């Protein structure tokens, strides 16, 4: 039986109504999310057994977050309880040429206080076959960086397949070490690396000559990026890169490229207009890729599933991608009509 494990921070998300600016009106919508939790929820929605590992305080906010995760079918039995607060982030949806904005309020949250000794990875990984984390977790604090690195090394020791989404967040790397110091070591321990061109530059020091603000990206250039990364990190069996052509805050073109030891693969491109919520889009790509590589035949099928899953997430409000395998397969198979299904 397959079992997946993800590790990272679960946060309270506060957003103004619709596409309003923060505090334009005196109300905020409260939801929960976080990169690795988002991946866990997607995998649970795909019918998989998945455990989410984090640290949360003993309070009503954390209890509500846990109830929601359990409602999706995510195992929360390995979550540490302690600390004083749940991290918060404020998300303001962009429109047209006005970009979306995120404000973090996660300093001194429960997970920032953890150390490697707080998690028994041998117990957590017992019976698991896949471990996933992101570069957001080591960006939070020295303690989370040490815990994430230990988790990755333990996962390899116990024979799990390990994936990491670099997920560079400029606003978070404030505790001392640079992203390259930490993420280069982590990249040397993983099997599947997920990234975009900025992640590779900021976290690994590997650059690609592309204009990420352009409305069109040349997928062939990413083959060179993959060659550079896989030469430097021979442990990496696959590098998956998201290509987001941002025409405006409401209109993105979305596709995926992936390099393996055997070849280079390009997914179908989705033109996503009237975006509902792009937050969590990368996590739905990651979870779709993980599921595809575990359950489908070949890299091309895996990235087509991942691209379709992420495209669907852009139509759903909140961090979590609330779709099923059947939903994703229908879109990946060519049904993008949006017609009522009866």
Explain what this protein looks like in three dimensions.
- This protein has 342 residues and is α/β, with parallel strands linked by helices.
- It has helices at 35-45, 60-72, 121-124, 136-140, 142-157, 179-187, 197-204, 221-232, 281-295, 299-313, 325-332; strands at 3-7, 11-15, 29-33, 49-53, 55-56, 80-81, 88-92, 101-105, 130-134, 161-165, 192-195, 238-246, 252-260, 264-266, 270-272.
- Strands 1, 4, 9, 10, 11, 12, 13, 14 and 15 form a 9-stranded mixed beta sheet that branches. Strands 3-2-7-8 form a 4-stranded mixed beta sheet.
- Strand 7 (88-92) and strand 8 (101-105) form a beta hairpin.
- The protein is globular and about 50 Å long.
- 47% of the residues are buried.
- The model has no long low-confidence stretch (mean pLDDT 94).
- This is Sugar kinase.
- One of its GO terms (molecular function) is kinase activity.
- Pfam families: PfkB.
**What is the arithmetic mean of pLDDT?**
94
CA gyration radius, whole angstroms: 19 Å
Estimate the global geometry from the Cα principal axes: globular
- Gap from first CA to last CA: 33 Å
| Number of DSSP-assigned strands | 15
Oligomeric nature of the chains: single chain
Largest sheet: 9 strands, mixed
Strand content: 15-25%
* Unreliable stretches: none
SSE series? EEEHEEHEEEHEHHEHEHHEEEEHHH
Class inferred from helices and paired strands: alpha/beta
The percentage helix is 25-40%
What's the helix count? 11
């Amino acid at each position: 039986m397959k079992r997946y494990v993800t590790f990272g921070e679960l946060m309270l998300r506060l957003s103004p109504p619709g596409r309003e600016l923060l505090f334009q009106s005196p109300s905020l919508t409260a939801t929960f999310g976080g990169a690795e939790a988002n991946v866990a929820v997607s995998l649970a929605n795909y019918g998989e057994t998945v455990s989410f590992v984090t640290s949360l305080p003993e309070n009503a906010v954390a209890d509500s977050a846990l109830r929601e995760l359990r409602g999706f079918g995510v195992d929360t039995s390995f979550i540490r309880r302690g600390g004083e607060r749940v991290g918060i982030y404020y998300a303001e949806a962009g429109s047209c040429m006005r970009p979306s904005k995120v404000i973090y309020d996660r300093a001194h949250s429960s997970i920032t206080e953890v150390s490697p000794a707080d998690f028994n990875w041998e117990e957590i990984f017992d019976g698991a076959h896949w471990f996933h984390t992101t570069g957001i977790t080591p960006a939070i604090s020295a303690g989370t960086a040490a815990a994430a690195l230990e988790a990755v090394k333990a996962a390899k020791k116990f024979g799990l397949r390990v994936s990491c989404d670099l997920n560079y967040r400029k606003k978070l790397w404030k505790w001392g070490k640079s992203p390259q110091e930490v993420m280069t070591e982590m990249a040397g321990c993983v099997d599947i690396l997920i990234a975009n061109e900025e992640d590779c530059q900021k976290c690994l020091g590997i650059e690609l000559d592309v204009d990420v603000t352009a409305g069109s990206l040349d997928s062939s250039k990413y083959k060179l990026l993959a060659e550079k990364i896989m030469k430097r990190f021979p442990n990496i069996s696959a590098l998956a890169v998201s290509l987001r052509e941002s025409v405006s805050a409401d209109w993105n073109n979305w596709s995926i490229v992936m390099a393996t030891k055997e070849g280079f693969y390009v997914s179908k491109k989705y033109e996503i207009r009237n975006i509902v919520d792009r937050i969590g889009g990368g996590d739905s790509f990651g979870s779709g890729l993980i599921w595809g590589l575990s359950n489908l035949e070949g890299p091309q099928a895996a990235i087509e599933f991942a691209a379709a899953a992420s495209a669907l997430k852009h139509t759903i409000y909140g961090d979590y991608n609330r779709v099923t395998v059947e939903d994703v397969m229908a879109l990946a198979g060519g049904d993008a009509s949006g017609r009522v299904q009866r």
